[in-house]
Amino acid sequence: MSTGLILEGVDFAYEDTPILERISLQIPAGQFVTLLGSSGCGKSTLLRLLAGLQAPDRGSLGWNGQPIRGTSLERGIVFQDYALFPWMSVVDNIAVAIGKARPETGKAARREEAAEYLRKVGLESAIGKYPFELSGGMRQRGAIARALALGSPLLLMDEPFGALDPVNRARLQDLLLEIWEAASPRKTIVFVTHDIDEALYLSDRVVILGAAPGRVIADLSVDFPRHRDRRTLFDGEDFRTQREAIAETLAADTLRRLIAA
User: Fold this and answer.
1) Single pTM value for the model
2) Architecture of domain 5-74+153-260
């Protein structure tokens, strides 16, 4: 049985507007892949297809040898808009997710585990609070804690750190890598961002989508050694070279669309 994600000839349109065109990718189990591209190139749509929230118009999607049809606890997702239940405290939001993933876990143990994930994302002071009592960045950290607590082997993350201040963004980047690197087997992660530095810091591989409609225009291996030190990596010549190459690819796609408009 093949493991990981396989996308073959995926097309998707909204009404009469093509959003994705001929997307074909193979992502081995345990790989950390980042999707980069301009706004409107279909990155979030592609995550929704992988989550099973929508179906492609053409082509196929598979996870660990099985077709993706509908949602599954095998595939966790973090949206840009927090997606916490407003009528539950933050800790109960996470405890409910743990109960769905591991129903044999007792109620007290679920809450204890949920509180531990909140501490990991720096929300120990917000354990008993409700989402409306938190800032947007704090709610997003709660949503990330819930996704991590689910334990899904495939984690889909749609700009999960975009609403955070630089300190918490760096902290959660490092936490995500720490959890990912320590796991055995490692999760497969598909991560959407607009930040080239973030993509190169986190990823094994960067897939660049061009727009109108979204299609793969570059698929780049990121070979910097693990564990990565932020300052050393960002100051390195290899990092700067790869960053500039990605920026040039994105700029060329933007220019192409402007000329075609």
Assistant:
1) 0.91
2) 3-Layer(aba) Sandwich (3.40)
